[in-house]
């Protein structure tokens, strides 16, 4: 029986975060350098290590120091946890879709996210989504700087845990940014894009997504996008 590995982006796809979460990067920069970041960077669809590396470069420094980076980023997000819980939200249809897909035989459902593993766990846990995905086989911002490299990481982990082969034919990445689409395309996964973030459907389609949905409200539509030929497991 064919298995399917579903890899979900988190921010903008499953949850709507709060503006304050973006503040963790300049705050981390200031803690690590002792001075404020004058120049900011686009964080959409990137790994946290990539964000911090560019933030350091844009502000005249070398790559972000690895020895304290994860610790500081995790601490900064924890400071925002109460605000995230109070103001953030699960995007419409996300919980229902995760639940429905998770009951299908042969489906391995996890995340592919630029968040560090600890930050991904915090965000999923705040909204009660942590039990709907297998975080053990996911791929995170700790695993690689470039997002496309995370696809292979998730495949290896899923194969080791579930004893199945996952390749370009049975791996689907679901995300909301052009960088998500590029990660799937370059990493060798089919891409279902969701225009639930800041990127429009036309731009996602032009970037190479095989399917584009307005949101996750229509669970049957998500299922058809994941298995366009009706070849569900």
Largest sheet: 5 strands, parallel
- Topology as a string of helices (H) and strands (E): EEHHHHEHEHHEHEHEH
- Amount of helix: 40-55%
Q: Overall 3D geometry?
A: globular
Q: Separation of termini?
A: 7 Å
The parts where pLDDT drops under 50 for at least 5 residues are: none
What does this structure look like?
With 233 residues, this protein is of the alpha/beta class. It has helices at residues 24-33, 48-58, 66-79, 81-87, 94-102, 117-126, 149-162, 178-187, 201-207, 219-226, and strands at 4-8, 15-16, 89-90, 107-111, 171-175, 190-194, 211-213. The model has no long low-confidence stretch (mean pLDDT 94). Strand 5, helix 8 and strand 6 form a beta-alpha-beta unit. It has a 5-stranded parallel beta sheet, sandwiched between helices. It has a two-stranded antiparallel sheet with strand order 2-3. Helix 1 packs across helix 3 (66-79) and helix 7 (149-162) packs across helix 8 (178-187). The protein is built from 10 helices and 7 strands. Helix content is 43%, strand content 12%. The protein is globular and about 55 Å long.
Short description:
The chain is an alpha/beta fold and 233 residues long.
What's the structural blueprint in terms of helices and strands?
Layout: E1 4-8, E2 15-16, H1 24-33, H2 48-58, H3 66-79, H4 81-87, E3 89-90, H5 94-102, E4 107-111, H6 117-126, H7 149-162, E5 171-175, H8 178-187, E6 190-194, H9 201-207, E7 211-213, H10 219-226
Parallel strand pairs: 1-4, 1-5, 5-6, 6-7
Antiparallel strand pairs: 2-3
Helix pairs in contact: 1-3, 7-8
